Every structure is written in C-alpha cells, then in structure tokens.
Amino acid sequence: MHYREVEGTREFVCRLETGRDWRGEIERLADEEGIDAAFFFGLGAVMDAEVWFYDQDDKEYREVVFDEPLEVATSVGNVSMLDGERFAHTHAVLSRRSSQALAGHLNAGTVFAGEVYVRAFDTDLQREYDETTELDLWFEH
Ligand code: ZN
Questions:
Q1: Is residue 137 situated within a structural domain?
Q2: Is position 103 within any domain?
Q3: Longest Cα pair distance anywhere in the chain, in angstroms?
Q4: Which range marks the domain in which residue 105 is found?
Q5: How far is the CA of 7 from the centre of ligand 1 (A)?
Q6: Could you tell me which residues are beta bridge partners of residue 28?
Q7: pTM for the complete prediction?
C-alpha cells in the first residue's frame, strides 16, 4: 500500500452544466481552480453514458455505450495528474427507468443535471504507469 497524509481546506459545490460532459465539467473546475488533487462525489442524471470495464486478464478497457437517459444514483471519483493534465477518475452507479442499475468507470456522459461536491487537497497526486496492472496509478515522489 502507498499512502500519505493530505490536508485540504478548499471545498466546492457545483451544479454541472446541461449538455456538457460529466467528467469534463469536474476537470474544468479543477483547471479553473488549480486543483491538482481532490476527491468528489455527486448525483444527478445523464442523457447517455460511456462506461468502461477493465478486463483484468487482457489488461484492456472494454467500452459499453448507453444511449438513453440514466439517473446518476451516485458518482465518486478523484482528481489527479496524468501526463501533465488534470484527470478526474470517475465511477458511477447509473439507473434506468426500471431502476435497474448499471455501474462502472464513467468515461463520458452528457449531463442532464448534476450536483457535485469536491474536496480539494493542498498537494498533487501523480499517476504513472504500473507494470503489474497496466493501469496509471498513484505514485509517491
Ligand atoms: Zn476507473
């Protein structure tokens, strides 16, 4: 396990803009406010979603696209630095009209409405390639 203590006093509540990308909106906040590390959670609804599943054997993401209105029952994630850019790693549990749940790594989703809380930390978090998982994970410097 890698860990370190972080401190943060900056908190934000955000109403995401209709028609924008869910993850992109969080990255936009991070860029505007100079947030290099954060955790967030939120809820709302999207008009579509691109959900990724990481195949642990093939070490590749599998993409599933849902072109339908979905509730964002919950979304959690964090902000860190990936290849010099702020990246909002975002997961979500989405639900259909029937309330059936879909879940995974939310790469993209067109916002219908969204409410997000962000807790920013006074540090940065760097992602680097990890040979074991073949994912970009947090590394200490
Ligand atoms: Zn993920």
A1: no
A2: yes
A3: 47
A4: 10-129
A5: 24
A6: none
A7: 0.95
Distance 78 CA to ligand 1 centre (A): 10
For tokens 């409410």, the residue is 115
CA of 104 to the centre of ligand 1 (A): 7
Tell how far the Cα of 52 is from the centroid of ligand 1, in angstroms. 8
**103 Cα–ligand 1 center, Å:** 11
Beta partners for residue 11, in sequence order: 119
134, part of any domain: no
**Do residues 39 and 77 lie in contact, with contact meaning Cβ atoms separated by under 8 Å?**
yes
> What's the number of domains the chain is made of?
1
Give the whole-angstrom CA distance, residue 59 versus residue 141. 25
- List the CATH number of the domain containing 33: 3.30.1330.80
In a domain? residue 125: yes
Along the 141 residues of the chain, how does pLDDT read in single tens digits?
888 899 998 999 999 999 999 999 999 999 999 999 999 999 999 999 999 999 999 999 999 999 999 999 999 999 999 999 999 999 999 999 999 999 999 999 999 999 999 999 999 999 999 999 999 999 876
